[in-house]
Design brief:
157 residues; Rossmann fold; two-stranded antiparallel sheet; alpha+beta; two-stranded antiparallel ribbon; binds zinc ion; 7 helices
Length: 157
């Protein structure tokens, strides 16, 4: 028998949260593990306006959540708004995407593993999370820490 599980949209913070949401909704884990090919997660973030970008001094708790070392604080930027960006503080939005391809190890964790085990297996399978991408953009000064934080997954919703 061949079958494909087609999923249009599940509201969740990231691909793995979407997977877990399906199990909460009553989709059998064994069925998910055998039928699932992959999950794409996507999110939109507002990039800093370069004309009014200035040093960003987020509260330390944000840095902790995003695993940004305090020594890298000087790389962070935020934009307050100016005539170039119509006071929006942003030069526009960009999409972030993550692709979780289901390999055999991941299949096993989906069948029986904890959320932690599933995340670990996905990481080993090469999932570059939206959180990682947002943090990289923040460290490049392209994204405020507040905006990165808004996009990210921290365990629980
Ligand atoms: Zn501006």
């Amino acid at each position: 028998m061949t079958g494909h599980l087609v999923m249009s949209t599940v509201h969740a913070t990231d691909a793995i949260s979407a997977l877990l949401r399906l199990t909460e909704l009553g989709v059998n884990r064994a069925v998910l593990a055998s039928a699932l090919i992959g999950i794409v997660g996507q999110g939109l973030v507002r990039l800093n306006c370069p004309a009014c970008a200035e040093p960003d001094f987020p509260r330390p708790i944000y840095l902790q959540h995003l695993s940004i070392q305090e020594s890298r604080q000087s790389q962070l930027r935020q934009s307050r708004g100016c005539s170039h960006c119509n006071s929006s503080g942003s030069r526009g939005r960009v999409g972030l995407y993550e692709l979780m391809e289901v390999n055999s190890r991941l299949r096993n964790s989906i069948r029986t593993g904890s959320e932690f085990e599933i995340r670990e297996a996905a990481d080993k399978a090469g999932l570059v999370s939206m959180t990682r991408q947002a943090v990289d953009l923040a460290l490049a000064g392209e994204l405020s820490v507040r905006e990165a934080y808004r996009t990210c997954y921290f365990g629980g919703e």
